Amino acid sequence: MPTSPVKTRIPLTSFGHLVTEVKRQLFGIEPPVSVEYTGWRKYFNSYTPQGRRNYVLATYGILVATAAVFMIHRRNRQEKVTSSSTI
């Protein structure tokens, strides 16, 4: 009877943890340590909690900035239309 190379010590509380354990045990894939990163990759990566948080904050910041520019542009356009029509 074939046996699985995956050890049974994997907790089933998190699917992501399960995938990580399987990768580590079957393929020997280890995520890089944050010390290995230099430059902007030290702060923006998908392996460390700090890197993930920074991606989320940057995404929300870009969305807020885009919305603010859109609102300012729309307000300026409305002011131009009303000022030119009153002349």
From TrEMBL:
Pfam families per UniProt: ATP_synth_reg
Source organism, top-level taxon: Eukaryota
UniProt xrefs under InterPro entries: ATPMK (IPR009125)
Organism of this sequence: Mugilogobius chulae
Name this protein carries in UniProt: Up-regulated during skeletal muscle growth protein 5
Annotated transmembrane regions: 55-72
Record keywords: Membrane, Transmembrane, Transmembrane helix
